[in-house]
Amino acid sequence: MSNRGQGVRTTHTVFSVVEALDQEGGATATAVADSLDISKSNAYDHLSTLQELDYVVKDGDRYQLG
């Protein structure tokens, strides 16, 4: 797959993470991973990036939209 294809897939995953947090009112990295059928490390990476960009806040082990 080309880098462009990977970028599109990554963008899709990021929006899926945001939608999952919105629907659930917040979730753990494990819950996001399970909901989206992705690895926990992948979910954590996306959540951490969203947190760095102030789209997500972390409270304990739960992430919520910021």
TrEMBL record:
It holds the Pfam family HTH_IclR. Residues 8-66 form the HTH iclR-type domain. PROSITE patterns: HTH_ICLR (PS51077). Coiled coil: none annotated. InterPro entries: ArsR-like_HTH (IPR011991), Tscrpt_reg_IclR_N (IPR005471), WH-like_DNA-bd_sf (IPR036388), WH_DNA-bd_sf (IPR036390). This is Helix-turn-helix domain-containing protein. It comes from Halospeciosus flavus.
